[in-house]
TrEMBL record:
Domain Amidohydrolase-related: residue ranges: 60-425
Entry's family note: Belongs to the metallo-dependent hydrolases superfamily. Allantoinase family.
Quaternary assembly: Homotetramer.
PANTHER family to which the protein is assigned, alphabetical: ALLANTOINASE
The organism's taxonomic lineage, starting at the top: Bacteria, Bacillati, Actinomycetota, Actinomycetes, Streptosporangiales
Protein name according to UniProt: allantoinase
Keywords from the named record: Hydrolase, Metal-binding, Purine metabolism, Zinc
Catalytic activity, EC: 3.5.2.5
A molecular-function term among this protein's GO annotations: cobalt ion binding
Organism: Sphaerisporangium krabiense
Length: 438
């Protein structure tokens, strides 16, 4: 706890008997000045604020940081967009997103394209927004300028991305990109599936699609990235791990001190292949069996997987066709990621402090955002009032993202976001957009 100066008055004081702080959950009063946390005080401290909120037993979490969001604007704004995506984020307790470089046109593969993306986002964001650059064949010379222009790192695919304007890197291209990124201590974030182990689905069903993208394809690609990280010294992060087969090489890399981290997503932790009802469940890599899901939770508990982020990848309804071989692969979950994860985490004995570490602290660290990720003095006053016992049934039509499609529709989840504050300002659907482009 920190003590204020005598007679201090704050813009906002939020009290909770269950504040999730870096040291764990405890009673606290969080005092805010100029958009930052000025002090974390005992719950009953008589700190004075222009605005005062007492949550009682309702939990106070740090704002979530979602480093895997496909906003798709400009170019495919009908799929999503900065206004709709960031409203959904705010409603779900996410106060910072980092936008992926593909599915927008142009993709963010050079400084000019980044400027186009930033112009599309300016003045439209309800929460703070950062940007990933892209590493594609032929743009190695653009990576350092993008890094200097402020991208958080570089996304690449090792297998086809699904859009022709963002092609994958082959083995030589991946090695070249990792050497270049290592030269300025940047970060490469990798969609890791080995194209040589992927096949075309033999039919339209989900099981045929699942068989076409085996877990061994993920593991082989992860092992390639780890070998190059060992050789080049580059920092690398494995995106959306769906297969527990990846855990052993990732844990070995961690024991060896390599700078390789990995994430998974709410859908891989909560949904399984036997629950698939329609194309809203399709994603790449795919949902797998229940035993695999259990092993992903073990990897998360062990620290082999450090982040849980949404991979929110929406499309228009016409692209979600019943034929799983032809349907767009992407899950829409930005607004419900926190209750989805909490519903399963609490059933497995995890705490809200664990969830805050996976969904706020670790993603902020990954993206190099020292002002985010924790309720601590000096950090941005990004806060979430979260009722961890409230149950609700997801209605896709009531979510804020652009198209009413999600595999969570009709699913009962536990945990409701009551209030979200961005730098000490309460966010509602009517709040004018004040998010900053990071």
């Amino acid at each position: 706890m920190t003590a204020p100066d005598a007679g201090e008055r704050y813009a906002l004081v939020v009290r909770s008997r269950r504040a999730v702080l870096p040291g764990g959950e405890r009673p606290a009063a969080v005092a805010v000045r100029d958009g930052r946390i000025a002090a974390v005080l005992p719950y009953d401290h008589p700190a004075d604020g222009a605005a005062r909120v007492d949550l009682g037993a309702v939990c106070l979490l740090p704002g979530l940081v979602d480093t895997h969001v496909h906003v798709n604007e400009p170019g495919r704004t009908a799929w999503e967009g900065f206004a709709t995506a960031t409203r959904a984020a705010a409603a779900g307790g996410v106060t910072t997103i980092v936008d992926m470089p593909l599915n927008s046109i142009p993709p963010t593969v050079d400084v000019g394209a980044l400027a186009v993306k930033r112009a599309a986002a300016a003045g439209r964001c309800a929460v703070d927004v950062g940007f990933w650059g892209g590493a594609v064949p032929g743009n190695t010379a653009a990576l350092r300028p993008l890094h200097e222009a402020g991208v958080r790192g570089f996304k690449c695919f090792l297998s086809p991305s699904g859009v022709e304007e963002f092609p994958p890197l082959g083995p030589a291209g991946l090695a070249e990109a990792m050497r270049e990124v290592a030269s300025f201590d940047g970060l490469l974030v990798v969609h890791a599936e080995d194209p040589g182990l992927l096949t075309d689905p033999t039919g339209p069903t989900y099981l045929e699609f699942l068989a076409s993208r085996p877990g061994e394809a993920e593991r082989a690609a992860v092992e390639r990235v780890i070998a190059l990280a060992r050789r080049t010294g580059a920092r690398a992060h494995i995106l959306h791990v769906s297969s527990a087969a990846c855990l052993a090489p990732l844990e070995a890399a961690r024991r060896d001190g390599l700078r390789v981290t990995a994430e998974t997503c709410p859908h891989y932790l909560t949904l399984t292949a036997d629950q698939v009802r329609g194309p809203e469940f399709k994603c790449c890599p795919p949902l797998r069996d229940r035993g695999n899901r259990d092993r992903l939770w073990e990897g998360l508990a062990a620290g082999t997987l450090s982040c849980v982020v949404s991979d929110h990848s929406p499309s228009t309804p016409d692209l979600k066709v019943p034929d799983f071989a032809a349907s767009w692969g992407g899950v829409s979950s930005l607004q419900v990621a926190l209750p989805a994860v909490w519903t399963e985490a609490r059933a497995r004995g995890h705490t809200l402090a664990d969830v805050a570490r996976w969904m706020s602290e670790a993603p902020a660290r990954l993206a190099g955002l020292p002002g985010k990720g924790a309720i601590a003095p000096g950090r941005d006053a990004d806060l979430v009032a979260f009722d961890d016992t409230a149950a609700f049934t997801v209605d896709a039509a009531r979510l804020h993202h652009r198209n009413p499609i999600t595999p969570y529709h009709g699913r009962t989840l536990t945990g409701a976001v009551l209030t979200t504050w961005l730098r000490g300002r309460e966010l509602t659907p009517a709040t004018p957009p004040t998010g900053i482009l990071l």
